[in-house]
Amino acid sequence: MSDQPAAPARPESVRLRQSLDALPAYAPGKPATVREGLTAYKISSNENPYPPLPSVLDVVRDAAASMNRYPDMAVAGLTAALAERLDVPAERITTGPGSVGVLDQLVRATCDDGDEVVFAWRSFEAYPIITTLAGAVPVMVPLAPGARHDLDAMADAITARTRLVLVCTPNNPTGTTVGAAELEAFLDRVPTDVLVVIDEAYLEFVDADDAPDAMALHRARPNVAVLRTFSKAYGLAGLRVGYAVAHEPVARTLRKTALPFGVNSLAQVAAVASLEAADELEVRVKDLVAERERVVAALREQGWEIPDQQANFVWFDLGEDTPAFAEACEAEGLTVRPYLTDGVRATIAEPEANDRLVEVAGRFLAERPRT
Ligand SMILES: *Cc1c(COP(=O)(O)O)cnc(C)c1O
């Protein structure tokens, strides 16, 4: 008599979240391929081409000697330095491992399952990934002609489920900014219980006359927060530190959704030292902006239609020619960032890399079959 229950099935693999099946993993910028006799440049990640400042390296070296200890979880030194610099109460500042870390905290602080996050598309690739990982729903609003945010369409896309709106200015990867007046008009249309985050990862490179003053908007409106990073202009991409400035109820919740000890001790001291060296860093930023203007002018001279560029990269609106252009760059030792059949983003880097980019682009345009 064997009426014992059948042995439970033994599946071959563990059960994972089904909602993640369709989600692509974040694709980092490709490393440069090394070619004989040709210096290769990785211009696919918007990194700062300058090496760390000696003053910053020094404090990082010193801090490395106590890496057996946990970092200060309150990130007190950096928070105080930022509060003073930005002239806001320290309670409004929250830090995280890169601004993508803070972005994750923002989505988790605002969205329950199925709530919506509105942002432009194309924009920063991490937006849909972080939104979906948190169980929220990305609402992607196509860019307007000129690769700019369509703020009217974004306001129209807000529903009763919207909890968060991301405005990326300058926009990654198209390099365009939103205007101060249009942003103000947009904010007037956003319900005051929906958080608007202005992602200013490239703020330091902006020289447009009509750029918004995000900090002033934050001061004037309880539902506006500002997101910034030390990865780009400050050149600390490898250390991972960014921050948000948000009104207190939001900031308090961001501290709850942060992973404990997210900002490591080397990043904390490096960020403080970088703020202290802001004048030195600004010289570098000015040089990069001058290089951007030089490259954009040369490309337009060749016949490229380049939208107004306000960050540390250039956007090529290439459509179907995107893969071919990326290959042409790769063949000359330049690793750029292609986006399917939308376009290519190329970081402003060392002058030699920039010169080569202009050369490749000129040749590509001359040889491209007219359609
Ligand atoms: C690079 C970037 C960030 C942040 O990067 P971190 O290194 O995580 O601070 C945030 N937003 C945009 C639009 C970016 O391009």
UniProtKB/TrEMBL annotation:
Keyword vocabulary terms for this entry: Aminotransferase, Pyridoxal phosphate, Transferase
Signal peptide start and end residues: none
EC number: 2.6.1.57
Gene3D superfamilies reported for this sequence: Aspartate Aminotransferase, domain 1, Type I PLP-dependent aspartate aminotransferase-like (Major domain)
Reactions catalysed according to its record: an aromatic L-alpha-amino acid + 2-oxoglutarate = an aromatic oxo-acid + L-glutamate
Pfam families: Aminotran_1_2
Residue span(s) of domain Aminotransferase class I/classII large: 43-359
InterPro entries in alphabetical order: Aminotrans_II_pyridoxalP_BS, Aminotransferase_I/II_large, ArAT, HisP_aminotrans, HistidinolP_aminotransfase, PyrdxlP-dep_Trfase, PyrdxlP-dep_Trfase_major, PyrdxlP-dep_Trfase_small
Required cofactor(s): pyridoxal 5'-phosphate
Single biological process term from Gene Ontology: L-histidine biosynthetic process
Modified positions (N6-(pyridoxal phosphate)lysine) in chain numbering: K232
One function term, GO molecular function aspect: aromatic-amino-acid transaminase activity
Function: Aminotransferase that catalyzes the conversion of aromatic amino acids and 2-oxoglutarate into corresponding aromatic oxo acids and L-glutamate.
Family stated for the protein in its record: Belongs to the class-II pyridoxal-phosphate-dependent aminotransferase family.
Subunit structure: Homodimer.
Record-given protein name: Aromatic amino acid aminotransferase
Organism from which the protein derives: Phycicoccus avicenniae
